[in-house]
């Protein structure tokens, strides 16, 4: 809703603000941002400041946007802006702001007019209103057909034209209707004395209106209505040459002049001469002049100004219709039109303006074009170049195309599973997956996905995690699966390497991406509305030296799939060993996710994300010729990762989703805080568990102790961690600031727990006798986080099923493991995945 008393930028809703900038950026002369500046009182901008706004166009930006921000900083309100637009008569912009002014008569008709037979009378009722008013004239109570303009012109007056006239005015937006005064038109035979004076001036056919101002039916010669003594003459004028229209008149009291072109008032032309120093194509037209005083009004003859090109000049194209700005939804079409005149043949070529160079639109060579809008990248400024062989070329004004979102799709839920394997049991380690998982989780959570993310899963754990993930899907759900780690492609299928693969591993030792798709898509009736895969793996063929029988999976097509590959078939995917962050730290990063992050930071279609991903990698000198992202897709609707969540209308489905959401919350809820007090010395131990928000199988245990009068130098840490899990870095982090001690222990591989998480807390302190004492306190943290899923169970049977049977998984060799890809030169500062 418009806030009239607020500053311009804050008082106009964003969507209307954007449309307003589009209208003023692409408006014709007199209706654009320059005209807006010209209509601001006080000349607040210098010429060089205006040109600074214009530079925004050359950078592909909006001068209107910058202007309105600047006006806001100068404390101009939306109400002020409306007044400026009103003075421009920019009714389209005022309508956008929902600005309304009821009709108000600023100059009414006289109560009485005296007309002369065979002359012309003009009855005028000047009105101001926003939107522009509608007029309807009446004689007595009889509607006059076709009399719907501000001025009623009655030509060749007859006695029957005498009578009372009135005008009804409204502007259509409200119920307000007003009427002018009644004007009584009297007819009188011409006075010989006055008619003779007309004839002496050569004005036998001049129209005249005489206002009655005395008891006499005609005025005396002391008070005389205007008499035109020199009529404007029609002229043919060469382009850029000057011309001058003159209308001389006499009358008493003093007279005033108003010029009209094609029936439209020229508001700045108020003298007996209308001058143009350089004729332009738009000066073509019919002109006349109204001469008036308090006694009456006289209209001149019409004069035709015809603009032509002089020899040698006539062929230069002249654009008389420029393209208009458009706001088009994805999936619709944008129509642009440009009309020009000049020596034939005229050639048209359309362009899209850029910040550094302009892109020619191949095939768009007609005056009228239609552009199918397929993505947000088509938003920008479009213009037409018109040329001919002999005389040169001209450019139209730039028209801004705004691309609006397509039909708003919704999801009933959005879930994502992220798996990053970096610590391979007997092979070359990776460095980026931990940070890539962090980045992807942040991106997806901003898009309202419920994200489960794991580090370092074995084959059994991957299979179970994927099965659990698939059980949370359903009709109307959006799902994302992301894997980063070692991998390969063979037989047209991608295989994802778990953290426990053996040295000469084969497809049996890995998870096939087609199997995951099969699980998700097998029930067409309940397939998710959107199924997006991000596979950040190498796609080289892996030669294990064994003839393999590859599994085949029936992946049903439902028009919901979009699969991103970090690289193309036969190529490797890479990671940077270190990229400097804004804080000066050097962190590893996968090239795929690094560029994906830039493409996903704002709402975009999946096609646009892919295009941005390609562009980003193509600009990276370290990998532009060795890594080529690719997609496969069958997506039939313009769904995006940013689509909002809308609860299902089916109650059973709705409550089922609520149950799954609660299960997800429970699965990511760390254990409650545990406290205990050591007897005799009163030392209180507080054990608090947190889950680092980026990983679902990592638990952080914080042990907090304080010194007491009976125990000083207190310290505590976690011991006796179960063998199935591991402590990150091999030891706890101790923060000791007497009398306060805090120890942080990060427990990885929580998914491997086969029972409760039982730990010991070791406490040391110095008693009053100066003796160092040591006490171990056992604590039970229950089944934290994803340990409740028991991902370690039933591995053998599920593995056989996921590889399609026919081959039995071989026990992993803990001492022999070959990396899935070879090292790239250290000089490239990258690793392949």
UniProtKB/TrEMBL annotation:
Protein name per UniProt: Uncharacterized protein
Coiled coil ranges: none
CDD domains, per the entry: Ig (cd00096)
One BP annotation, GO: proteolysis
Matches recorded under InterPro entries: Caspase-like_dom_sf, Caspase-related_regulators, DEATH-like_dom_sf, Ig-like_dom, Ig-like_dom_sf, Ig-like_fold, Ig_sub, Ig_sub2
PANTHER family xref list: MUCOSA ASSOCIATED LYMPHOID TISSUE LYMPHOMA TRANSLOCATION PROTEIN 1/PARACASPASE, MUCOSA-ASSOCIATED LYMPHOID TISSUE LYMPHOMA TRANSLOCATION PROTEIN 1
SUPFAM superfamilies from the UniProt entry: Caspase-like, DEATH domain, Immunoglobulin
Organism: Owenia fusiformis
Endpoints of the signal sequence: none
An annotated Gene Ontology molecular function: cysteine-type endopeptidase activity
